[in-house]
Amino acid sequence: MKKYNWVAQDEDGEVHEYINKPSTEEAAGPWWGKACIGNFRQASDPTTKAVTNWKESLIDLSKNDYIIKKGILMATRKHAALIHAWADGAIIQYQNSDGKWADVVRNDPSWRDDETYRIKPATRTVKFRNYIHDCEIKVHVPGTAIPPLSHMEWLGDWQEVEIEL
Fold this sequence. Notes:
Layout: E1 6-9, E2 15-18, H1 37-40, H2 54-57, E3 59-60, E4 64-69, E5 72-77, H3 80-87, E6 92-95, E7 101-103, E8 117-119, E9 123-133, E10 136-140, E11 152-164
Antiparallel strand pairs: 1-2, 1-3, 4-5, 6-7, 6-8, 9-10, 9-11
């Protein structure tokens, strides 16, 4: 999946994503006024379509997020939705350099633009025990049927694991 760094909206309301910042210096031909504005302002990424009036709506995704409200592309503060959830009491996590999620210390995020945050997902604790039956290792969860004890053998004690919902 491509990571886009810029987003803009054309005069028809269509939203376009860019890997590189569009530049007016990347002219596809001579300037002929409004009729050629679409060809004049092309992104550095050749797979994207030309966008007219990109300058008025261009958003740097390294510094902002965006929303589309009533058909209009608008920049929002990076992490705005998470900040609102945090203000309402949500626990925030950040993604560390190993790609694993960890709780923010004292649930007091710094809201850095270069960090990735999320709301801590709800979890559920599942209790289970492994057993062997007919030469296969299986998992038993309380409330589910197991074969008669004479036909199976427990492999260890009960264990608990917390899973994200």
